Amino acid sequence: MQCPKCRAVLPAAAAECLHCGIILAKYVERHSPVPQQRPQSAASAPAVDTPVSMSAAVGRGAFLLLLVLWTTTLAGGVSAERVNSSFIHLPNLVFHEAGHILFSPFGRFMTVLGGSLTQVLIPLVCAAVFLWQAHDPFGAAVASWWAGENLIDVAPYVNDARDLQLVLLGGRTGAEVEGHDWEYLLNAMGVAHRDHAIAAAVQAAGVLTMIAALVWGAAVVWAQLAALRRSVVDR
Q1: How many CB atoms are located within 10 Å of the residue 50 CB?
Q2: What is the pTM of this model?
Q3: What distance in Å separates the CA atoms of residue 166 and residue 179, rounded to the nearest whole number?
Q4: Nearest to residue 142, comparing CAs of 75, 87, 213?
C-alpha cells in the first residue's frame, strides 16, 4: 500500500507511515469529503394546500362564488342597516368587545380603539395561521376576505361619530349614552369633522381587501383544478 501523504510504499498491514509518521486511519478520516445532505424529498416536504379530489376543488370554487355574491351586497356605500342585518355582524361584535378588554392595559385611547382593531386583527391572525402553519392559501384568502368584511363592519360606526344615531349594543343610540367609541376616538384626534370621509375610506379599504382576497382565492382554486387535470392526464 502507499502512504496517502508522502506516497511512500508501506507494508499492507501498516497502521502508520514510517517515513512521515502519520496515523493512516486518522489521516484518511480527516481528509475524507463530508457527505452532503440530500435535499428534502417531496414526500417529506410540508404539505401545500392541494385538495384530494376534484370535488373538493369544485366545492371551494362554489364557496368562492357565494363570497362574491355576498361581497356585492356589502360593497355599496356606508350603511349601518346593511351591515347590522348580516349574520356575521354578531360574531364580529364578540371580537370587538373582547378587544376592549384585551387592550385595557394600554390606556383609554387604546382600550377604546382595541374593539375595532381586534375585530380586524383576528381574521388577519387566522390568515397567517392558515398560510404558514396549515399551508392552506385558500383558507388564508377566506380569512383575508373576513378582515375586509370587518372593515366594512366598522365603517358605519366611524360614520356616526357626530350624528350619534347608531343603535349600540345596549339598545340605545350614542346620543342617549353620551357618545361611543369612534365619537371619542375622532374627537381625541381632532378629526371628528371628517367622520364621513374617514368612514368612506374605511369602507373602500374593506371592499378592496375583499376583492383582493377573492382574486387570491380564485387563483388558488384555478391552480388546484389545473394540477388535478394534469394528474388525470398523466395517469
Answers
A1: 14
A2: 0.77
A3: 10
A4: 213
